[in-house]
Design goal:
The complex is a heterodimer of chains A (248) and B (261). Chain A is mostly helical. Chain A contains 12 helices and no strands. Helix content of chain A is 78%, strand content 0%. Helices cover 41% and strands 23% of the residues of chain B. In chain B, helix 3 crosses helix 4. Classes of the chains: A mainly alpha (248), B alpha/beta (261). Chains A and B meet through helix 1 and helix 6 of A and helix 2 and helix 3 of B.
Chain lengths: 248, 261
């Protein structure tokens, strides 16, 4: 058994055992789905943009993946506080492998959570336009999960206490979500907002999901995938570098 | 097995370890005694590759920990001062992760986990979550885990801190048993004089980053002409309290208590 595998397995075990937490963390996406989905539905329809539920569901699935993967990455902070981090830092394993194991674990957990929310979306009436493009949608979701898990790990490597966690929540995760086009179409936005959304990797995740699930794209699918692959790679390298700097 | 020569570690303008030299032979139980902040944990961190020394020579099983980090890490096990178990996992799962991190083949890992968990009387609890364990059980599990990859050296940084006398006694009995049976060299730090005297073959007393005395418990007592190791320790390190930073109110309260007497 390799170090990467065993650390991946650890994340998965911890996740599947916290059943209450799984249910609780489905609450927020469901709130967004039902309140926004049905609340704004009429206005959206009147503006001639079709079903808002169809539009917002990919955004909510991506949001779930964003939240879960970033938090699992930041959970490094808990490992620091409960001491387990030291056990991995003193082992004869390159830091890069430790970081990779954690990141893959966090990404897998986020994928499972995203799938659960996707099922809820379908139950609420969301219908993907083609089954054939589902594998591609799953691929985009996986890229998203890896990208933000690596971001979470990079941030978690520098955090020392709970205050830092709140800061990240308010100044990184929420802005990423609100400036991604998860809830509104990206066309005809004020200039500042356009720039912000174009710099946000989550915009490309959501666009890719919309392209594959409902057949609407603001950018192009190939551009979405290219951005996600490059950003994912950059963030994994950045995370590995940050992780190598941790002092026990 | 462990050799340090003129080891120095400076943090900004504070010297935590100031020219420490010692030699621990294979199979020995070596104790580092010292007041709070004397440099015990810093020394252990340097020996276990977690900190680089500012200067000085260091050898672990013939290797230099600052250069052959990986090789050195395979050769020792460590029990930190603070817990380092994953509480959300079971005892066996903690052993499993350690085995994988240290590349212990599955079959050997299983056999050795069983042997060690039985030695430390945790076998019945192997599938229980660590969060349900008592302080003594957690410490024993940490030691069992640290020995899983059959290290040549085991570092124990105040392993009995906060344990009741029964747990302490049991823990040392088991550690001594493994020291004799597997010949593992043990480097420990503690505040408890009786433990050091009972367990260690040699003791080094460290204060303000310097070793002030080294030898068997008997030699230390002879040198200071004191009947107990505790008194010898106080004679060597003084009786001044080390936890500085007590505030004015605290001092007032102490004064008041004294006046009442």
């Amino acid at each position: 058994m390799g170090a990467v595998y065993v650390l991946w397995l650890r994340e998965l075990r911890r996740y599947t055992r916290s059943r209450v937490q799984i249910v609780v963390s489905l609450g927020q996406p469901m709130l967004y789905l039902f309140v926004m989905g049905f609340g704004l539905g009429a206005v959206f329809q009147q503006a001639g943009r079709g079903s808002y539920l169809q539009f917002v569901a990919p955004g909510i699935i991506a949001m779930t993946v964003l939240f879960t993967s970033t938090f699992s990455g930041i959970a490094l902070l808990w490992d620091r506080q409960f001491g387990f981090l030291k056990e991995t830092l003193v082992a004869p394993v390159p830091r890069f492998k430790i970081m990779l194991g954690r990141t893959c674990g966090a990404a897998t957990v986020a994928m499972i959570q995203g799938t659960l929310v996707a099922v809820i979306c379908v139950a609420a009436g969301f219908r993907p336009v083609s089954i054939a493009s589902l594998p591609l949608a799953i691929g985009i979701l996986a890229l998203t999960a890896i990208l933000f898990a690596a971001l979470g790990t990079s941030i978690g490597a520098g955090l020392k206490d709970m205050q830092g966690f709140q800061m990240v929540m308010n100044f990184v995760v929420m802005p990423l979500y609100f400036l991604s086009g998860a809830m509104f179409p990206l066309d005809n936005l004020p200039r500042a907002l356009t720039i912000a959304t174009q710099l946000n990797p989550l915009s490309y995740s959501i666009d890719g999901l919309r392209a594959t699930l409902i057949g609407q794209a603001h950018f192009t699918l190939s551009m979405d995938i290219t951005v996600l692959v490059i950003m994912g790679f950059v963030l994994i390298c950045f995370g590995a570098w940050r992780f190598s700097k941790i002092e026990a | 097995m462990i050799r340090a020569e003129n080891l120095i570690k400076k943090f900004d303008n504070f010297t935590a370890v100031d020219g420490v030299s010692f030699d621990v032979t294979a199979g020995e139980i070596f104790a580092f005694l010292g007041p709070n902040g004397a440099g015990k944990t810093t020394t252990i961190k340097i020996l276990t590759t977690l900190l680089a020394p500012t200067s000085g020579k260091l050898e672990i099983d013939g290797l230099d920990p600052t250069r052959d980090q990986h090789e050195v890490r395979k050769r020792f096990g460590i029990v930190f001062q603070d817990p380092s178990l994953d509480q959300e996992l079971t005892a066996m799962e903690n052993m499993e992760i350690h085995g994988a991190l240290y590349n212990v083949p599955r079959k050997i890992r299983r056999e050795r986990s069983e042997l060690l968990l039985k030695t430390f009387e945790l076998w019945e609890k192997k599938d229980a979550f660590v969060k349900t364990f008592s302080g003594g059980m957690r410490r024993r599990l940490e030691i069992a885990r640290g020995l899983l990859h059959t290290p040549k050296i085991l570092f124990l940084d105040e392993p009995t801190l906060g344990l009741d006398p029964q747990s302490r006694n049991q823990l040392w009995t088991q550690v001594k048993y493994l020291n004799q049976n597997e010949g593992v060299t043990i480097f420990l730090t503690t505040h408890y004089m009786d433990e050091a005297e009972k367990v260690a073959s040699r003791i080094a007393i460290i204060d303000h980053g310097k070793i002030v005395a080294m030898g068997t418990a008997q030699e230390l007592k002879d040198r200071t002409q004191k009947p107990s190791l505790e008194e010898a320790f106080l004679a060597l390190t003084g009786t001044a309290l080390r936890d500085e930073g007590a505030n004015a109110a605290e001092n007032m309260r102490q004064m008041a208590r004294m006046w009442r007497k």
